[in-house]
Amino acid sequence: MEIAPGTLFIVATPIGNLGDITLRALETLKAVDAVLSEDTRVTGKLLMHYEIKKSLISCHEHTDDTKLGQIIGRLTQGESLAFVSDAGTPGLSDPGNKLVSLALAAGIPVVPIPGVSALAAMVSVAGIDMREFMFLGFPPHKKGRETFFKKVAATEIPVVYYESVHRVVKNLELLETLAPESRVIIGRELTKMFEEVRRGSVSDILAHYREHESTVKGEFVVISY
């Protein structure tokens, strides 16, 4: 695969099942000069699985401006780089937006290499009308959490958000208080060994996760409608 020099590729990677990576993503990772990674340990395992030997450069939401400037410098000097987050499509509740903004400002071509997204995976199996929906990312941990769920409760179209295992019960409790008639679809550990999708009233789903709170693990995608 031949790629244009001085290009930044934004590469989607699997959210669980390594077989979900695209052929184009693999070709891109093999062809670039180096890989920018949210977590080099996570990306290192992916590259090792596919026998790709590339230099890894740490690049995440806390990367300072000096290092970002160095990365932009490498691109302007003709290196081609790929950016990957830990899993899924960068920019969807993942880091990468600042890097892309700086690259565009410097006149650097930015090319998407599409692939897996927990959002798209969940929408595809929702079984309800998702021609129009609102995606809100992760709820705030503390400040603004109630405001977030008031917005979810008041929205007339389906709302999709992400949640961690540590807060899913508390957030379903708040949703039940604000919108007791709502229904939810929850995807947990999508594409992984213990993948599950549950559908029902917010009260029923909340009761299930309360009962299994001590044993349930993983990341969640929630659709409220």
Order of strands, main sheet, comes to: 3-2-4-1-5
Q: Calculate Rg over CA atoms.
A: 19 Å
Strand count, sense and barrel status of the largest sheet are: 5 strands, parallel
Contiguous helical run count:
8
Helix content: 25-40%
Q: pLDDT below 50 for ≥5 consecutive residues: which ranges? A: none
Strand pairing plus helix content: what structural class?
alpha/beta
The total count of strands amounts to 10
Task: Give the topology string: H per helix, E per strand.
Answer: EHEHEHEHEHEHEHEEHE
Shape: elongated
Q: What is the average of the pLDDT values?
A: 95
End-to-end C-alpha gap: 44 Å
Beta-strand portion reads: 15-25%
Walk me through what this model shows.
The chain is of the alpha/beta class and 225 residues long. The chain is built from 8 helices and 10 strands. Strands 3-2-4-1-5 form a 5-stranded parallel β-sheet. The protein has a 5-stranded mixed β-sheet with strand order 6-7-10-8-9. The chain is elongated and about 55 Å long. The termini are far apart.
